[in-house]
Amino acid sequence: MSPVEDAIGQPARVQFEVFLDEHRAALNSCLDGLTEEQARRSLVASRTTLLGLVKHAIFVEKVWFDEAITCRSRAEIGIPSTPDESFILDDGDTIASLQQAHREACENSRRAAASLELDDVVRGNRRGPLPLRWVYLHVLREFAQHCGHAEILREQILNPK
Prior knowledge:
The protein is an all-alpha fold. It has one domain (3-158): dinb family like domain (Four Helix Bundle (Hemerythrin (Met), subunit A), Up-down Bundle), CATH 1.20.120.450. The protein is built from 7 helices and 2 strands. The protein has a two-stranded antiparallel ribbon with strand order 1-2. A hairpin with a 7-residue loop joins β1 (121-122) and β2 (130-131). The N and C termini lie far apart (36 Å). The model has no long low-confidence stretch (mean pLDDT 95).
């Protein structure tokens, strides 16, 4: 039985976390088996690459589970000021380094939210105060979209016409 199937009948918090972790894992694994060149390959007009998607996912984790919860600024956290900038790859960004940084960001997010309830309000986001439930739904929606992007990019890379 999959973790998602195990979540049926569980409290909403457990369901959110299971679905979020499933999407986190899918984004991280989109790089598995690729070369560095393939992971960096640009196939669309935007900055979106498979490696860039994982780097952006790290940014999303830190925006919603560090900035929003701790109220620290993006500069203090060490992340770009805009989502678009979070796709920019540095020379040192590799599949291994970003997969590891992503796993660490996810674990830090889980720890940051662990003591909160779904209806607890986080106050550090630019939108203003938001309940943790909204944060989970927003991040889940964003990661679901990016998983779709990753699937299409990976298919183009592995099965070129």
